[in-house]
Write a structure and sequence with these properties.
Layout (H helix, E strand, L loop, with lengths): L13 E5 L4 H11 L3 E6 L11 E3 L2 E2 H6 L3 E5 L5 H12 L3 E4 L5 H4 L4 H7 L4 E6 L14 H8 L1 H5 L2 E2 L2 E2 L6 H24 L3 E6 H8 L1 H4 L3 H20 L4 H9 L10 E5 L4 E5 L3 H11 L18 H19 L3 H11 L3 E3 L10 H5 L3 E6 L3 E6 L23 H7 L4 H9 L9
Parallel strand pairs: 1-2, 1-6, 2-5, 6-7, 7-10
Antiparallel strand pairs: 3-4, 8-9, 11-12, 12-13, 14-15
Helix pairs in contact: 1-8, 6-9, 8-9, 11-12
Length: about 425
């Protein structure tokens, strides 16, 4: 049953999560919101993310936000006794999520062949940074590294004194968390049809590339020459010590956008407003709303050459004209005009404003949990909702090792055995 008293779509599914930081923990939250019972295994020192934006008492904002609704246990998987416990739990579970380098899971006794031998119905998700093959396969990786090697970091073009900056959101990690949950749900459905579990492979690299699907795509008949010409120039700049900005300019001009007034933010008299018009009808609505004309609208792509200096000058003029218009009225005034015209638009908000935003509150996009150490915590609610099997946050994140003894007793361990394991360090040092 979910926290609201209804059975979630994954009610009865048991998940064993070996994870840290963002990607796999986020997947565990998504599955928990669907009603799955998730047991998170941490090393004695805890998930390193407990130290991100720390709140004291081995708690941190990053950990609390990405581990709600789980039961938490501590196991030192370097010890055979801990591996045995993990294997016994996995034998009772439907899903295992493992977030280590390809060689680590086998060393810890929790690789797919080991766990599937005792539980052939197990759905085992193996998340790595770069996959199991290729020259990067041996490397550990985090969102920063994945953004760098996949080009995702360069898309926004952020830099500081010529040094590339990571994108503000851990987009590769978060996308991978969604991919993990998506893959697991598909594998569970397949298991219902076949009776067999399977291994699901996810990677930070594939997620980062998928986020760039249109940019990554190459139409060989039209894109090859331009891409190779740009890359030759980039390689030349690298050899000659050219700046990052020079390299960005080359790459970003492969498919230039000239005079964009339709899909951007504008400064208003008291803030900013975003408009998003990606079709010709919507662009015409925007032009009508703001009283402008654009001869390019309705033309075929081959009739407007973005490299033509006249086209570039015209585009620059349009931008200046539109910016001046938007600066003359407030955000609310423009939103009334744009709403009436049917133009997709919205005000710029900071994340910190949204906990009291009516649109968020009225759609239940925010939820609240009671953390055993931090008290009430307001946080983002489930990402989706379902009419017959509604989702809900299942509770707060666990304190370090909060449910260790509870889970061991469910496996049949008595108090004496648990005390022996604790003294041996299998369950950590007891400071939980």
């Amino acid at each position: 049953m979910t926290a609201n008293g209804h059975a979630g779509p994954l009610a009865g599914i048991k998940v064993l999560e070996f994870s840290e930081i963002i990607a796999a923990p986020f997947a565990g939250v998504l599955l928990s919101d669907m009603g799955a019972e998730v047991i998170k295994v941490e090393p004695p020192a805890g998930d390193p993310w407990r130290g991100f934006q720390p709140l004291g008492l081995r708690e941190g904002r990053g950990y609390i936000s990405l581990n709600r609704g789980k039961r938490g246990i501590v196991l030192d998987l370097n010890m055979p006794e801990a591996q045995e416990i993990a294997q016994r739990i996995a034998a009772r579970c439907d899903v295992a999520i493992v977030n280590y380098r390809p060689d680590v899971a086998a060393k810890l006794g929790i690789d797919y062949p080991m766990l599937a031998r005792e539980n052939p119905r197990l759905v085992y998700c193996d998340n790595t940074a770069f996959g199991r093959r290729g020259p990067y396969a041996h490397r550990p990786g985090y969102d920063l590294v994945a953004q760098a090697v996949t080009g995702l970091m360069s898309v926004e073009g952020r830099e500081d004194n010529g040094v590339p900056l990571v994108n503000a959101l851990p987009s590769a990690d978060l996308a991978t968390g969604i991919a993990i949950a998506w893959g697991i749900c598909a594998a569970l459905y397949s298991r219902e049809l076949t009776g067999r579990g399977q291994r699901v492979d996810t990677t930070l690299m594939s997620s980062a590339l998928s986020l760039q699907n249109t940019r990554f795509m190459s139409v060989e008949a039209t894109d090859t020459d331009a891409r190779h010409t740009a890359l030759d120039r980039v390689y030349e700049l690298r050899r000659d010590g050219g700046s990052y900005k020079e390299q960005l300019d080359v790459v970003h001009n492969v498919r230039p956008v000239v005079g964009n007034i339709y899909y951007r933010c504008y400064k208003t008299a008291d803030g900013f407003v975003a408009v998003g018009c990606l079709s010709t009808p919507l662009r015409k609505k925007l032009l009508g709303a703001i009283g402008m004309e654009d001869w390019r609208i309705g033309k075929r792509p081959d009739e407007v050459d973005p490299a033509d200096p006249a086209v570039q000058a015209y585009g620059k003029h349009l931008v200046e004209q539109a910016e001046a218009l938007f600066a003359g009225q407030t955000t609310d005034e423009w939103l009334r005009v744009l709403d009436e015209a049917g133009v997709p638009a919205g005000p710029l908000k900071f994340t910190e404003e949204l906990l009291e935003e009516p649109q968020v509150l009225e759609n239940d996009f925010v939820t609240s949990v009671d953390h055993p150490l931090m008290g009430p915590v307001r946080m983002v609610g489930p990402m989706i909702q379902m009419s017959e099997t509604p989702l809900a946050a299942q509770g707060p994140s666990p304190t370090l090792g909060q449910h260790t003894e509870e889970v061991l007793r469910e496996l049949g361990y008595d108090d004496a055995r648990i005390s022996t394991l604790r003294r041996a360090g299998v369950l950590g040092n007891g400071i939980e």
